[in-house]
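Private note to self, pasted from the team thread so I don't lose it. Backbone tokens:
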């Protein structure tokens, strides 16, 4: 796609792009917002570098894409409950997001996307975030596996994640049933929608069957050819589409500090639509390319 108000540079062939030519601390035109959203939908993860944002400016930018989400369990600043603080230092015993996941997929309407602004990064390196394309994860499955997964649903449960110290005492444990393959409501593309953190079982299967299929899918999601690796810099703001991406935060910088703040945009209830209907929706809604053949899985060994 050709952009008139922003510059977009792909970060790898699978997902990810850097957006230049825009200062997010200033008001944006309708055209700029539309092009940023289009780039986000096309590339799944978009990166803005060298930004200087106040909390209010961060919140305002998030609101351009929808109503803001309130986390069901995490501690948030009283003045800005829409902010999720992401912090680690020499006193940390764990950090959020150490395993592959989609943010708060245990809710009936999981978030549409997340916007993380990093103000402090480890001085000696580390603290990268890995992203994996769930479009690519689905598209590189064999046809028999795609056929098997079509119409399956799985349980996503927040209890195992939030029922421990570090979360609010009045925390809730959302639990929801979602399709194993979901259709993206804006692009019409199919995306795998199970993750290690929240997904507990596939509905209608016995435990051994469910565990075997889920573990196979989790390992597939973690295939390096489906990923991009983001190196943070101070002043970076990164937006990812929770409907078609998973991510994992690397905690390889202890005892150094890493600090950021996340704004999350509300989403809608996941659904599955057949490939035929999805293809029609994609043709009418987006010009984003399907996953290229170049990352078909290589033999291991």
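Design output:
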């Amino acid at each position: 796609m050709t952009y008139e108000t922003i510059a977009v540079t792909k970060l790898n062939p699978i997902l990810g792009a850097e957006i230049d030519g825009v200062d997010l601390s200033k008001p944006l035109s309708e055209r700029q917002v539309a092009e940023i959203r289009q780039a986000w939908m096309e590339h799944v993860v978009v990166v803005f570098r060298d930004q200087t944002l106040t909390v209010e400016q961060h919140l305002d930018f998030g609101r351009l894409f929808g109503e803001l989400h309130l986390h069901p369990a995490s501690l948030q600043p009283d003045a800005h409950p829409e902010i999720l603080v992401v912090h680690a230092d020499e006193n940390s015993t764990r950090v959020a997001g150490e395993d592959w996941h989609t943010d708060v997929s245990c809710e009936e309407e999981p978030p549409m996307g997340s916007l993380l602004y990093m103000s402090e990064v480890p001085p000696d390196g580390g603290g990268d975030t890995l992203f994996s394309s769930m479009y690519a994860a689905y598209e590189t499955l064999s046809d028999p596996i795609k056929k098997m997964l079509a119409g399956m649903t799985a349980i996503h449960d927040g209890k195992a994640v939030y029922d421990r110290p570090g979360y609010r005492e009045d925390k809730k444990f959302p639990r929801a049933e979602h399709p194993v393959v979901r259709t993206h409501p804006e692009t019409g593309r199919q995306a795998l929608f199970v993750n290690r953190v929240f997904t507990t079982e596939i509905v209608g299967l016995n435990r051994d069957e469910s565990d075997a299929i889920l573990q196979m899918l989790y390992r597939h999601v973690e295939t390096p050819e489906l990923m991009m690796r983001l190196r943070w810099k101070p002043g970076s703001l990164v937006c990812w589409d929770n409907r078609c991406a998973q991510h994992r935060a690397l905690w390889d910088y202890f005892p150094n500090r890493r600090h950021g703040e996340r704004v999350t945009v509300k989403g809608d209830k996941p659904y599955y639509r057949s490939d035929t209907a999805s293809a029609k929706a994609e043709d009418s809604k987006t010009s984003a390319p399907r996953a290229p053949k170049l990352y078909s899985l290589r033999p291991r060994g």
